[in-house]
Amino acid sequence: MRVIILDSAKDVAQFAANTIIDTVNRKMRPTLGLATGSTPIEAYRAVIDAYKTNRVSFAQTVTFNLDEYIGIKEEHVQSYRYFMNQHLFNHIDIPLSNTFLPGAASLNEAQLHKNAHQYEEAIKKAGGIDLQLLGIGKNGHIGFNEPTSSLRSRTRIKSLSESTIEANKRLFKNGEYQPRLALTMGIETILESRQLLLLATGSTKANAVKDMVEGPLTAMCPASALQLHQDATIVIDSEAADKLVMKDYYLWCEQQRQDLE
């Protein structure tokens, strides 16, 4: 696990954008795994700027998002399809037919299970994910894999924790239906990506970052599963790194890596 500690959230976003751009430029038909939430927004803005200045094209890119709320339609302003269109897809040259999210609008359980299986098959048909972008919840979740999620889990229906629902409540109008369930890639699905890039910023993520990087491998911190991956990069700002016991060592290691390069 490579741990990169940068000065600011802006630096974290730019590092993520550069990694995405490099992946797309190196691959003939790149496949990206994408994430929603507040942390990736700045990275997507930097990606859009790179596209507008002709530094990257997404015409041959395929994307798969981590998750989607169950029970709201794609056009709903809080759907993750809407989020991705607004914050990335509508501003670059990617064909929308190449952008995939789990089909979660149905409230029929059998249909949702079918959609989850089809999502797994679509990822395989695309040749797997080259680069998977991740965030981390305050409780250590990745995607919507909440604490106690199986480390062997695949795309499936997942109940959101009360803390996750509370954290997302600000996004919904008072009295509006707020989903309690989601379709999410499983932890094993995520780990099958060839490269993982997890972003975390701010002091509220410091405990989760510490548990992920320095804690035991445990389903109680789903993000700790990244310890098992052969190419996982954790990019955090100084506030999110505040609780790391080995912080100075990670800074030292990164300096040695840069000197070698």
Q: Could you describe the 3D structure shown?
A:
This protein is of the alpha/beta class and 261 residues long. It has 8 helices and 10 strands. Strands 1-10-9-6-2-3-5 form a 7-stranded parallel sheet, sandwiched between helices. A 3-stranded antiparallel sheet has the order 4-8-7. The chain is globular, with a radius of gyration of 18 Å. The mean pLDDT is 96.
Tally of separate helices = 8
Structural class per helix/strand content?
alpha/beta
Q: Report strand %.
A: 15-25%
Q: Low-confidence stretches at least 5 residues in length (pLDDT < 50)? A: none
Rg to the nearest angstrom? 18 Å
What is the element string, with H for helices and E for strands? EHEHEEHEHEEHEHEHEH
Output mean pLDDT.
96
Kindly list the characteristics that best describe this protein.
261 residues; alpha/beta; three-stranded antiparallel sheet; 8 helices; 16% strand
